[in-house]
Amino acid sequence: MDTRSTRAVFLDRDGVINSGQDLYYVTHPDQFVLNEGIGEFLKKLQDAGYLLI
Q1: Taking the domains of the chain in order of start, what are their residue ranges?
Q2: What does the mean pLDDT of the chain come to?
Q3: CA-CA distance, 13 to 18, in Å (whole number)?
Q4: From CA 52, how far away is CA 30, in angstroms rounded?
Q5: CA separation for the pair 24, 52 (Å, rounded)
Q6: Is the pLDDT reported for residue 25 higher than 80?
Q7: What's the predicted TM-score (pTM) here?
């Protein structure tokens, strides 16, 4: 049995990845706006060996 573990980060979309924009949910791609700096932050997590879920 493989006993190695994988480090993972579970990400919530609304308010974490994208701005809330006072919308209950995104109904159209135009409503989806990434939070500032999230791309760089996610890259740092990946570079540190985390699986992004």
Answers
A1: 8-52
A2: 87
A3: 6
A4: 24
A5: 24
A6: no
A7: 0.72
